[in-house]
Design brief:
Elements lengths: L3 H40 L7 H8 L7 H33 L12 H16 L4 H22 L6 H24 L3 H11 L8 H29 L2 H6 L4 H23 L5 H12 L6 H21 L8 H22 L5
Length: 347
C-alpha cells in the first residue's frame, strides 16, 4: 500500500516532469511556427514560388524575374523581419522583467523615439538616406538610453523612476520629430514618415548582414545574463542573497536590451508594439515564466505575420509592418491597462 508522503512525492515529480516538458514543447512549437511563417512569407503572396523553383533559385539557377524577386526582395525581407522580431521580443522581455512592469518596453520608455528623432533629424537636416539613417538611429537610441539611465539613477535604478523618465523623454523626442517634420518639404517628410512607420521595404542583404552580425554578439550576451535576470525577478534582496551583484547585473541587462532594440530599430524603423506584445504573450504561453527564447520567437512570429498581412490582406494596398503591429498593439495596451487596474497593478 502506497503511503501518503510517497504519493505526494510522486505527484511533485510528475508535476516537475510536466513543467519540464512544457518548457521544451512551447519553444519547439514556436520555432516550428516561425519556420512555417517564413516559408509562407517567401513562397506565397502577390508573387508565388513552387518549392522546387525556390531551391533551384537558391542554389544559383537564374529564372528571369523570379530570381530577382526572391533573392533581392522576399528573402532579405523575411530574414530581416525574423531577426528584428527576435531582437525586439527579447529586448521587451528583458525590460519588462527587469523593471517588473508590463508597460516597460523600448517603445514606451523612449528608446525607440530616440532612434526616430535621430533618424528624422538626419533625413531632414542633412538629407541622409539608407545605411546612414540606420547608423544615426542606432547612435540616437543608445544616447537616449544612456541619458534615461543617468537621470533615473539616484541610489540605484528604480523601475518606476526609469519608466517615468523614459516616458518624459518619449514625449520630448516625439515633439522634436513633429517639429522637424513641419520644417521640411513634403517629399522629405514623406520619406521620414515611411521610416517612422516601421517598414521592411528597404530590406537588403547588406542590412541583413549588419543585423545578423550584431545579433551574433548580443544574443549570446543575453543568454549569459538570463540567469541573473531570473534572480532579479525575485527582488533585489533575494538576488543579492543568491550572490548576484544587483547593480552590475541590472546595468549589463539594460545595455544588452537597449542594444537589441537599437539594432532592430536601425534596420527597419520603430516597428510599434512588437517588444511590448512579445513578453506578455510569451509569459502567458509559458504559464507565467519568463524565457527570453520564447519572447524572441513570439516577436519573430508577430513581425512575419504582420508584414505578410500588411502586404496581402487588402488587394492593391501595401501597409508597412509597423502600421499592422500598431493596430494590434493598441487594443492589447488597453486590455493590459484594464486588467492591471482590475488586479491593483495599474496605479
Amino acid at each position: 500500500m502506497r503511503t501518503a508522503p510517497a504519493g505526494a512525492a510522486e505527484a511533485v515529480r510528475a508535476a516537475r516532469k510536466q513543467a519540464r516538458r512544457h518548457r521544451v514543447l512551447v519553444p519547439s512549437l514556436l520555432g516550428a511556427a516561425v519556420l512555417v511563417l517564413f516559408a509562407v512569407y517567401v513562397l506565397l503572396g502577390t508573387y508565388t514560388f513552387t518549392i522546387p523553383d525556390f531551391f533551384r533559385i537558391l542554389f544559383g539557377e537564374q529564372i528571369p524575374g523570379a530570381t530577382y524577386i526572391l533573392m533581392e526582395s522576399k528573402l532579405p525581407r523575411a530574414v530581416i523581419g525574423t531577426l528584428i522580431g527576435v531582437g525586439f521580443g527579447i529586448a521587451g522581455a528583458v525590460f519588462q522583467t527587469l523593471l517588473r512592469n508590463p508597460l516597460a518596453s523600448p517603445d514606451v520608455i523612449g528608446i525607440s523615439y530616440g532612434a526616430s528623432a535621430s533618424a528624422v533629424a538626419a533625413i531632414v537636416l542633412f538629407g541622409a538616406a539608407g545605411t546612414t539613417v540606420s547608423a544615426v538611429a542606432l547612435v540616437g537610441a543608445l544616447a537616449v538610453a544612456l541619458l534615461i539611465y543617468l537621470l533615473a539613477r539616484r541610489g540605484g535604478v528604480a523601475g518606476y523612476r526609469l519608466i517615468l523618465v523614459g516616458i518624459g523623454f518619449a514625449a520630448v523626442m516625439q515633439a522634436l520629430v513633429s517639429f522637424l517634420l513641419t520644417r521640411t518639404d513634403i517629399r522629405t517628410a514623406s520619406e521620414a514618415l515611411v521610416w517612422l512607420n516601421g517598414s521592411l521595404n528597404n530590406s537588403s542583404w547588406d542590412r541583413a548582414a549588419v543585423l545578423a552580425g550584431s545579433l551574433l554578439v548580443l544574443l549570446p550576451a543575453a543568454a549569459l545574463l538570463a540567469r541573473r535576470l531570473r534572480g532579479l525577478e525575485l527582488g533585489d534582496d533575494a538576488a543579492a542573497g543568491l550572490g548576484i551583484r544587483v547593480e552590475t547585473a541590472r546595468l549589463a541587462l539594460i545595455i544588452v536590451a537597449v542594444a537589441l532594440a537599437a539594432v532592430a530599430t536601425a534596420a527597419a524603423g520603430p516597428v510599434a508594439f512588437v517588444a511590448f506584445l512579445s513578453g506578455p504573450i510569451a509569459r502567458r504561453l509559458m504559464r507565467g515564466e519568463t524565457t527570453l527564447l520564447t519572447a524572441g520567437l513570439v516577436g519573430a512570429c508577430i513581425v512575419l505575420a504582420a508584414d505578410f498581412a500588411g502586404a496581402n490582406l487588402i488587394p492593391g494596398v501595401t501597409l508597412p509592418v509597423g502600421v499592422v503591429t500598431g493596430a494590434l498593439g493598441a487594443p492589447f495596451l488597453l486590455w493590459l491597462l484594464v486588467t492591471s487596474n482590475r488586479v491593483g497593478q495599474g496605479g
